[in-house]
């Protein structure tokens, strides 16, 4: 496969995954913010996705959603993310299924329809966000049903899981800052619950631990759960698996990527909640983020080194 | 519900051939198929079908980008739902005529880059060849596989008021539009369900398979690596490039994906370098190799021409074919047919005046209102002077440029392009059309897909069919 194509496939899925995470977050915070705006403000979300030199902020829910979805001056707005996803898809059309291309292209056309911003102003914001989300769900379904399991699929999966880990660790880090500001146990519970909801793991948590929110259980689920598709462990495991597939079919050179992933997987798997508490959750997350950064750079060098040879 | 109002305001243009009505305003029999259908269809239903076609083009991403003020706007190439219909007999003549022409043009290009008999025998003046901007000295003495230079041609035809098809341009470099031929047919299948098979309309869908076969046969490798080289995502024909690559199952590459090592061309893959055997390039000659042509080009590949001359890679169409579709050379194509094939041309040329000849220049300036003046190396409908609609000042300015370098200009009488029915604001109106059939030449001869791209000037009274200037297209049906 062309190195450029591999790169574009990774970024296609990274952008689609990022868009999905942002929409989930907006949807959840909209509800939480109506209950207790002081606990669930918009500012930290906007700040996390803003460009470094942009200090725009707002606490008006509709204004925030509008900014996060439509603002073309904001590089992580949904409209910009989907435009870039589409450009990547457009340049790899002969490698992705027809259905996937139509899916991404129709999403782009939907978002750039001039009447859409008005629908947000006048209609139900949740329904609005759900409509955007449905394109992401369709994308996942189309990938599963129409994309053959080969190099394209593996590179796309690498992008997807890489981005997902980044999103989970970023958002968990935001929540930790908020939690550290309070000593109120009940308030802390709200934050943990909110974190689970934003990752879509609330139901699973209830099934496992009932309605008792303890820090240890939440951390174990977010970081170490083997079956929860939005746990850090699950994503690293999948990332590792797809990298191995690529090495197996000789689309990737065996370099220290495999080592980095194997090491990170073991670290997450075998770290106990006590040792996490000992080093501090913040440090633990920072370590994961650093490792992921190295892995991401290492993937870059794989295709860039070939591209320059 | 009968829909008679659809036909109510169809007024034929004077001295113009109409594809649907004969001169006694009777419908030609080949149009019965569509007339029966239209009469039984309500205006609302037709309008819905038009709306459907726009949505289909957008959602499939069948768009081209127009750049103005450094901003790209994605547009769809307007599609008219009424097909243009060609009889088997008409098609037979077109088919034979284009094949004859391409045979002669291929022989001409080979001759020009080798022995130049046609110059020595005094058929074509040498200075015309050497002053042609698309003549490539770099191709002198280069042998190409099976002596085929023009693998892909999109010959533009128009039908004059005598009912005959004339060749307007040969388009032997990197003709585009074939993806619209394919896409328009897919749309027809959806807006006229069942009509195509019932009337035995000849299929066009084989084009990508034939193209792939012809491309792969150029290589002596058992499993050649055929790629399509595109200038990239910002090129206005990018949609076509990605569609053809997808339909042929080949890799779509950009210049930066390729490199030349030891006179072989490779593509940069995640698994190291992979040799490339055949390149269907949609990049112009000038940009193909920064070492030999425009040094600043980033669209091409450094060293590709050297690899080509060594026979290590095939480039399609061959570099240098532009010498044969120059508008000054066009005049000589009938002579080429007689010279190389000893046959009379089946398809006629349009009368063309060479402005470098004083008598032609005088004639053209006297009859300027009836003339169109074109640059010999121009394309896309740009840089033309349409005598009947230009102001005195525009004519004066244009002639000034012509006088500076008259060899660069030719003039032709303003033609009466035939008209075909188009659905405009819910009613049928005649609009000017041309026809671009696509011909593929390979080891075993020439194949022409029955049909092609019918372009239409959607503005009333306009003769310009180019997509960049308000043109649209129609599906083209050839009856079995």
From TrEMBL, chain A:
Domain DUF403, first and last residues per copy: 1-304
Name of the molecule in the record: Alpha-E domain-containing protein
Organism of provenance: Gaetbulibacter aestuarii
UniProtKB/TrEMBL annotation, chain B:
Circularly permuted ATP-grasp type domain span: 83-457
SUPFAM superfamilies to which the protein is assigned, alphabetical: Glutathione synthetase ATP-binding domain-like
Record-linked InterPro entries: ATP-dep_Glu-Cys_Ligase-2 (IPR051680), CP_ATPgrasp_2 (IPR025841), UCP005522 (IPR016450)
Annotated protein name in UniProt: Circularly permuted type 2 ATP-grasp protein
Lineage of the species this protein comes from: Bacteria, Pseudomonadati, Bacteroidota, Flavobacteriia, Flavobacteriales
């Amino acid at each position: 496969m062309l190195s450029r194509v591999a790169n574009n496939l990774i970024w296609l899925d990274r952008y689609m995954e990022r868009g999905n995470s942002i929409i989930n977050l907006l949807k959840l915070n909209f509800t939480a913010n109506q209950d207790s705006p002081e606990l669930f403000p918009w500012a930290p979300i906007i700040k996390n996705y803003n460009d470094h030199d942009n200090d725009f902020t707002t606490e008006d829910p509709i204004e925030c959603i509008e900014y996060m979805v439509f603002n073309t001056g904001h590089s992580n707005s949904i409209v910009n993310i989907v435009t870039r996803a589409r450009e990547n898809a457009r340049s790899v059309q002969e490698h992705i299924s027809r259905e996937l291309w139509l899916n991404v292209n129709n999403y782009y056309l939907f978002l750039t329809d001039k009447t859409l911003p008005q629908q947000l102003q006048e209609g139900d914001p949740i329904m609005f966000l759900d409509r955007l989300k449905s394109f992401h769900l369709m994308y996942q379904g189309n990938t599963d049903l129409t994309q053959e399991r080969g190099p394209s699929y593996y590179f796309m999966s690498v992008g997807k899981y890489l981005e997902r880990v980044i999103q989970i660790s970023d958002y968990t880090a935001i929540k930790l800052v908020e939690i550290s500001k309070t000593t109120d146990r009940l308030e802390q519970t709200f934050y943990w619950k909110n974190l689970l909801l934003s990752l879509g793991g609330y139901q699973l948590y209830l099934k496992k631990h009932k309605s008792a929110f303890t820090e240890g259980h939440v951390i174990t689920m977010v970081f170490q759960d083997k079956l929860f598709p939005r746990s850090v462990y699950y994503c690293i495991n999948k990332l590792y698996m797809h990298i191995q597939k690529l090495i197996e079919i000789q689309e990737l050179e065996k370099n220290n990527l495999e080592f980095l992933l194997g090491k990170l997987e073991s670290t997450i798997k075998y770290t106990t909640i006590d040792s996490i508490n000992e080093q501090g959750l913040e440090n633990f997350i920072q370590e994961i983020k650093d490792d992921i950064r190295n892995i991401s750079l290492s993937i870059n060098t794989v295709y860039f080194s070939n591209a320059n040879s | 519900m009968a829909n008679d109002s659809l036909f109510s305001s169809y007024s034929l243009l004077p001295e113009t051939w109409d594809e649907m009505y004969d001169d006694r305003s009777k419908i030609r029999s080949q149009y019965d198929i569509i007339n029966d259908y239209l009469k039984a269809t309500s205006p609302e239903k037709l309008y819905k079908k038009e709306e459907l076609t726009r949505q289909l083009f957008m959602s499939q991403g069948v768009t081209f980008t127009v750049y103005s003020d450094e901003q790209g706007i994605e547009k769809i190439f307007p599609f008219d739902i009424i097909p243009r219909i060609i009889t088997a007999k008409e098609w037979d003549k077109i088919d034979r005529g284009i094949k004859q022409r391409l045979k002669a043009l291929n022989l001409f290009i080979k001759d020009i880059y080798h022995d130049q008999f046609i110059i020595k025998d005094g058929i074509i003046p040498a200075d015309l060849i050497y002053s042609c901007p698309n003549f490539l000295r770099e191709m002198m003495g280069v042998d190409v596989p099976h002596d085929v230079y023009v693998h892909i041609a999109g010959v533009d035809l128009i039908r004059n008021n005598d009912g005959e098809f004339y060749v307007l341009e040969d388009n032997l470099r990197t003709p585009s539009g074939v993806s619209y031929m394919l896409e328009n047919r897919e749309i027809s299948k959806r807006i006229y369900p069942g009509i195509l098979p019932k009337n035995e309309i000849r299929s066009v869908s084989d084009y990508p398979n034939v193209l792939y076969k012809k491309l792969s046969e150029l290589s002596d490798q058992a499993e050649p690596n055929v790629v399509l080289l595109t200038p990239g995502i910002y090129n206005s024909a990018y949609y076509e490039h990605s569609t053809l690559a997808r339909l042929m199952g080949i890799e779509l590459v950009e210049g930066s994906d390729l490199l030349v090592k030891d006179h072989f061309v490779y593509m940069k893959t995640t698994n190291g370098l992979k040799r490339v055997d055949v390149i269907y390039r949609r990049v112009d000659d000038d940009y193909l190799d920064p070492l030999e042509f425009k040094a600043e080009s980033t669209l091409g590949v450094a060293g590709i021409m050297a690899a080509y001359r060594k026979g290590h890679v095939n480039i399609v169409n061959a570099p240098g074919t532009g010498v044969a579709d120059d508008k000054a050379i066009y005049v000589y194509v009938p002579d080429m047919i007689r010279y190389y094939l000893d046959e009379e041309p089946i398809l006629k040329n349009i009368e063309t005046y060479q402005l470098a000849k004083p008598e032609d220049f005088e004639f053209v300036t006297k009859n300027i209102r009836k003339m169109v003046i074109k640059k010999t190396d121009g394309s896309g409908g740009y840089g033309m002077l349409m005598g009947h609609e230009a102001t005195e000042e525009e004519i004066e300015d244009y002639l000034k440029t012509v006088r500076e370098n008259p060899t660069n200009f030719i003039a032709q009488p303003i033609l009466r392009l035939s008209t075909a029915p188009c659905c405009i604001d819910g009613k049928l109106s005649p609009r000017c059309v041309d026809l671009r059939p696509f011909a593929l030449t390979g080891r075993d001869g020439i194949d022409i897909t029955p049909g092609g791209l019918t372009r239409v000037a959607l503005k009333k009274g306009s003769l310009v069919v180019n997509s960049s200037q308000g043109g649209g297209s129609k599906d083209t049906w050839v009856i079995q």
